[in-house]
């Protein structure tokens, strides 16, 4: 079965990340509130002096819009994690019984997890990935149970709401990274002039082209890590007709070529990790 990032409208997205060699990836952006469950190995997250080490059997909840330096460390030759990114409406409609839950910022590690959480997480991911006839209501119920587990730790996700212009631009671009976006089109969607958009972005120390490239590279990274699509197809889905130009952009952003990322995250047809480290 080919790996892919699967989604269910109004519920969320999920995927499995496989890696067989330790790699350092800088400023990996999590656009939606996301929970990552580590099945094998260790994930390290670093941001502005903060550091989280999440081991097998543990999980980490990451607030939407966060950027972390990430290291996935294999154990006995393999790292494996499953993530669920929650649709904003799921977060918005969740009404915890406990009113004093603390909002997650920027991330929270869940330790001492038992079989109950593991089963709840499996069912939540399955409700997004399954071909069975599971209604949207049941799927929302299952992913909301993960939010209830967070509440057991006194935590909750903040309702996604972009507060600055660069975040709003990123949200619009992320909806379709392959589109040939222009600054004037985005400015019209945000109901401002192109000059005003560029001025506001400059005040946030970022440009439209920088955001567009980063959105596309972040999307490509997710596809390389969690799907079996070929690199040429991923390049096109990330908005690049030229695979070579895409490769240059990707290396500039993450320090590795797409080929290296794909080599370290591939499986053979039988699901066995391919050892190509010496080729």
Automatic annotation (TrEMBL):
Keywords for this protein: DNA-binding, Transcription, Transcription regulation
Record's keyword annotation contains Transcription regulation: yes
Domain HTH araC/xylS-type, first and last residues per copy: 167-264
Family annotation (InterPro entries): Homeodomain-like_sf, HTH_AraC
PROSITE patterns: HTH_ARAC_FAMILY_2 (PS01124)
Keyword Transcription regulation: yes
GO cellular component, one term: cytosol
A Gene Ontology molecular function term of the record: transcription cis-regulatory region binding
Superkingdom classification of source: Bacteria
Protein name: AraC family transcriptional regulator
